[in-house]
Amino acid sequence: MTAATRGAGTNQEGVRRHNLGTLLRHVHDTGELSRAELTGRMGLNRSTIAALVSELDTLGLIEHSSPATSRRGAGRPSAGVRIREDGPYVVAVDLGVDNAVVARVGLGGKIWHRAAAPIPEDPEAWMVGATIATLVRQVVALSPADAPLLGIGLAVPGLVRRSDGLIRHAPNLNWHDVSFGSIVLAALALDVPIALGNDADLGALAEHRRGAAVAVDDLVYLSGNVGVGAGVITSGHRLEGVAGYAGEVGHLYHDPRGLPCHCGSRGCWETVVGAPAIAEALRCSPDQVPRLGEILDEMTTAPRELRSIATDLGRGLGAVVNIFNPSLVILGGYFLPLFRLCRAEVTAGLGDRALMPARDSVRLTLPGLGNDSVLLGAAEMAMEPVFTDPVASLGSAITDAPARLAG
Amino acid sequence: MTAATRGAGTNQEGVRRHNLGTLLRHVHDTGELSRAELTGRMGLNRSTIAALVSELDTLGLIEHSSPATSRRGAGRPSAGVRIREDGPYVVAVDLGVDNAVVARVGLGGKIWHRAAAPIPEDPEAWMVGATIATLVRQVVALSPADAPLLGIGLAVPGLVRRSDGLIRHAPNLNWHDVSFGSIVLAALALDVPIALGNDADLGALAEHRRGAAVAVDDLVYLSGNVGVGAGVITSGHRLEGVAGYAGEVGHLYHDPRGLPCHCGSRGCWETVVGAPAIAEALRCSPDQVPRLGEILDEMTTAPRELRSIATDLGRGLGAVVNIFNPSLVILGGYFLPLFRLCRAEVTAGLGDRALMPARDSVRLTLPGLGNDSVLLGAAEMAMEPVFTDPVASLGSAITDAPARLAG
């Protein structure tokens, strides 16, 4: 892309901003890069790279990682650049069915602070908005006073309309057509860019960018929480569908005589392998469901009922593998500890249902980002504009967020 | 793409051949275009277009569609071009589980001749290769003596490895790891390019190029024959997976207590809605299955058992719609007459299982190419090289195919 736009003369300012954003993304993706590496990756000459680095430095986005003497040394190829730690940040929100996690995340993907709160059953959207606003205030209060807040990224367990971020349907929250971005901004009384996305899609995004699936072009991130969803990247492209609702594998038929599902149907896969089923297998009370991750983490052997769920997890994965033919499936959420405990059962279930050539192509694995894939994916989504046009993104950032949100 | 490569100076011959192929594809897609339209679509100036048209004319690929006086008239913008009818062609093969159809197809997608033969149950690959070779000879014998045969495209009801065209698994033919392209070439004793693809993928390709889904970026072509498969185009890209096996929706779980499936599992969707189930609902004997299309075509009302299958077709479609969020689902194969007979039942079944926002985004429709979607998709696949580099493709074409295959 860079090479194709390099020579365009019609919109030089646009090309320069695009190149600024691309350079910033390279540093964001890798943590630290030398100018020689930037020259190679960008396909631009050294003096152009030096000018871009200088401007990103002036904008407060990056800093030099070599001694101060080489600070102006465009002629020294070993001089490196890295993300500026006290620079711009985003707020990421992972809204689950039973709890919400909010974090302040810097460019480069570092989580600086986090805060969490429980979400009650069948919650009112405005009350959840108020809860999230409180958590946002907590993490922003801990940020440097003048570091720009670029925006908020919010991961949702439901179908999010791509065109405007409307939550069309979040079955396990029992929400239909909720403009939740506006609700959160109203609770914060803050005019900042906010983006919403499906939780599993964002898990896939983060794992692809800096987790277990870097450089993997065909992957599925399976999110196992109260509901089950898939984020899919196929031939390097995110699977979205016409409106952004693709990947709802939790409502695959698993047993037509099965339990009713929040979606209104019956016997969906998530009724068999979702958190309520896992809790029942462990004889946990419903109020223990939010602690299910810890409970599973502490277990060293799995009871028979849990192994049976692991087999059904593998069987449903067979369908997922037949449909997407991925090279990697990443098991996130409660499926992380479940897979760690019952790897043999999951693998056997997969073998029951996957066609052999597709099964032979795939590897099941744990998230490279642990329990933070979705949260970091929400951060990546919120950062997207700064990699498209850093100047414009900084222009819409809030530079006194701690003061504004404390007031 | 054209605009980006126009100015490249490093490989002018490559750029010229690319532009030749792109111009030919525009004429192929639309049937006939004026030079003014070509200038607009290609983003090239009139004299470059005139030179490309002249070369494609010399190569015998296109002809002028306006009176002879304007034949050299680059200055007359209304002069049109169209595909030359006695020019190059491909042979397309639609290998089904119970019959094979072979056709001679010209650039522009015109089917000139076709021939068909039954395929026995659990057939030997070499015998099917011999049957197809006989059909190829029949259709090639009817072609102009010196028209170039560009290649053969073969649609297969199974998983085809993208890298080399190996049939990894065709459950309903009971084939594993069959290098069927080589078998057909051996039976023909002809060294001609041959390409293999999955039948549903090719149905989607043809419907996207010249059928019901022109300009639709998110579509599913559902192929209903003995097996069931999906060809998916998502955000304008073909869904392939890491090795080319994606889209195997026929093996979605439909009922864990259901019938055994050829894939080795049980209760797959295709055991409920595939041809054997339809035949049983109509009380047809197994030897009538190959005539199922005609039988369904002749029906005006559906018996209860058939309506029940239509409901299950819709329910499985619900999962397909939840997974891909397409704007269009095209019902091909036996699902064409089934949907025509039982539209209400299919739609109701879809409503049972699809999440509302995804259901609201989708329309179910019949193939624009009738029963020829897969066959024409195989032709499109075989033509692909001529749109990449017409000169190279003609270089590997057979220019005396009728004589060679008669010998």
From TrEMBL, chains A, B:
Keywords: Kinase, Transferase. One of its GO terms (molecular function) is kinase activity. SUPFAM superfamilies: Actin-like ATPase domain (SSF53067), Winged helix' DNA-binding domain (SSF46785). Pfam families: ROK (PF00480). InterPro entries: ATPase_NBD, ROK, WH-like_DNA-bd_sf, WH_DNA-bd_sf. The keyword Transferase applies. Belongs to the ROK (NagC/XylR) family. This is Sugar kinase. It comes from Nocardioides aromaticivorans.
